[in-house]
Write a structure and sequence with these properties.
2 domains; 7-stranded mixed beta sheet; 11 strands; binds glycine; Dehydroquinate synthase-like, alpha domain; two-stranded antiparallel ribbon; alpha/beta; globular
C-alpha cells in the first residue's frame, strides 16, 4: 500500500514548448531515473554537485538515475560562491568537454542555489545550449532559485551579473534532502516561502502563521505543502513574465534592501541571503507604511511572524556590525535604474498586495533605513 505521505505533488510551469514539471515529494532521488529518462534527448547525464552535497546525495541520485536507464558521470565543485565565477565555470566547462559531452547530454544540478545557478549557466552555454535538470537540496533552492530559469555566475562588480534565462527540463525537489540542511539555512530559506504569501497570496501568509514552526522544525508533509504552494505561486508569476519585463520583479520583494545589507557585510556568513531578504521585506513594509500605502499593523504582524520563526526582523541581528545608512542607500541607488532621482522598489499595500513602484524618493528610503539601523 502506498503511504499517502510519500505521494509527490507535480506542478507545471507553463511556458509552451519550454514548459516543465516541478515534482515535489519524498524519496525522489531513488526514483529519478523513471522521472528523468523520458525527458532526455539521449541516455547520458552529467551530475554537477559540490563538496558538501556530493558525499550525501550523489550516490543515491546516480543510482536512481542508472536504475532508470540513464548513464551518469559527475563533476564536484568546491562549496560556496567561489564556484560561481568565471574560473569556476571554466573548470566545469573544461571537465564537461573532457568527458566528451554531446548535444544530447543533459546536466543535472544537485545542490543549493549556487550549484543550480552555475550548472544552469553551463548548460545554457555548453555546445550553445544543452538540457539540464534541477535537483535542489536546500529549502531556498526548492522554493525559489531552481524554478524559473534564472542562471548566472558572479562578476567582480556584483553577483549574478553574467547569466542567461535557460529553463530546466524538470525540477525534482526531494523533501528528504532537507533533513541534512543546517537549521539556520532552513530558517533562512523559509523567508522566501513567506515572501510568496506576502507578495500576492494573503491566505498563504495565514497558512505560514499557522504552520511556519512545523516547516522550520522538519515536518515532512508540511514542508512538502510549503514547497508546493511556493512553487505554484512562483510558477504562476514566471509563466506570465518569464524574462522579468514586469510582474516577475515582484519576486524581488525585500531584495533591494536585502542586497544592500549583504553587500555591506561582504556577503559573509554573518548574514545569509534569506535572512537579508527577511530584514529587507520588513524595511519594504516600513517604507510602504511611511508612504501611507500600508497599515502599520501589517508590518507588525510580519515582524512578529519572522521573530517567531527564528528569522531576523532588523539589521541589529548582525552582531558587532556598524551600519551606515548612506552606504546602504548608495548600494540601492547603484543597484537600481534611477530616473529623475527616483528609485524603483517593490512596495506593498498590505499582506499579499505587493506592487512595483517606480517613483520612490531617495529621502524616504534613507528615512526608513536610518530608523532601521538606529533601532
Ligand atoms: N528569485 C527571483 C526570480 O526568480 O525571479
Amino acid at each position: 500500500m502506498t503511504d499517502p505521505m510519500t505521494e509527490p505533488d507535480t506542478l507545471r510551469l507553463d511556458l509552451g514548448r519550454r514548459g516543465y514539471g516541478i515534482v515535489i515529494g519524498r524519496g525522489l532521488l531513488s526514483r529519478a531515473g523513471g522521472l528523468v529518462k523520458p525527458l532526455l534527448r539521449g541516455t547520458r547525464a552529467v551530475i554537477v554537485t559540490d563538496e558538501n552535497v556530493g558525499p550525501l546525495y550523489l550516490s543515491p541520485l546516480a543510482d536512481g538515475l542508472e536504475a532508470g536507464g540513464v548513464r551518469t558521470s559527475a563533476i564536484t565543485v568546491p562549496a560556496g560562491e567561489q564556484s560561481k565565477t568565471f574560473a569556476g565555470l571554466e573548470d566545469v566547462m573544461e571537465q564537461l568537454l573532457d568527458q566528451r559531452i554531446d548535444r544530447k547530454t543533459a546536466l543535472v544540478a544537485l545542490g543549493g542555489g549556487i550549484v543550480g545557478d552555475l550548472t544552469g549557466f553551463a548548460a545554457a552555454t555548453a555546445l550553445r545550449g544543452i538540457d539540464f535538470i534541477q535537483v535542489p537540496t536546500s529549502l531556498l533552492a526548492q522554493v525559489d532559485s531552481s524554478v524559473g530559469g534564472k542562471t548566472a555566475i558572479n562578476s567582480r562588480h556584483a553577483k549574478n551579473m553574467i547569466g542567461a534565462f535557460h529553463q530546466p527540463r524538470l525540477v525534482l525537489a526531494d523533501i528528504d534532502t532537507l533533513t541534512t540542511l543546517p537549521h539556520r539555512e532552513v530558517v533562512a530559506g523559509y523567508a522566501e516561502i513567506v515572501k510568496h504569501g506576502l507578495i500576492c497570496d494573503p491566505a498563504f501568509f495565514d497558512w505560514c502563521e499557522r504552520n511556519g514552526a512545523a516547516v522550520v522544525s522538519g515536518d515532512p508533509a508540511i514542508r512538502q505543502e510549503a514547497v508546493r504552494r511556493s512553487c505554484a505561486i512562483k510558477a504562476g508569476v514566471v509563466a506570465e513574465d518569464e524574462t522579468e519585463q514586469g510582474r516577475r520583479a515582484l519576486l524581488n520583494f525585500g531584495h533591494t534592501f536585502g542586497h544592500a545589507l549583504e553587500s555591506e557585510t561582504g556577503f559573509s556568513d554573518s548574514l545569509l541571503h534569506g535572512e537579508a531578504v527577511a530584514i529587507g521585506m520588513i524595511m519594504a513594509f516600513d517604507l510602504s507604511h511611511r508612504l501611507g500605502l500600508c497599515p502599520g499593523q501589517d508590518a507588525e504582524r510580519v515582524k512578529a511572524h519572522f521573530l517567531q520563526a527564528g528569522l531576523p526582523a532588523g539589521p541589529d541581528y548582525v552582531k558587532g556590525m556598524r551600519w551606515d545608512a548612506d552606504a546602504l542607500l548608495a548600494h540601492m541607488a547603484s543597484d537600481k535604474k534611477a530616473a529623475d532621482g527616483k528609485l524603483t522598489f517593490i512596495l506593498t499595500r498590505g499582506i499579499g498586495q505587493a506592487f512595483i513602484a517606480a517613483d520612490v524618493a531617495p529621502e524616504d528610503v534613507l528615512g526608513v533605513v536610518s530608523e532601521a539601523v538606529a533601532a
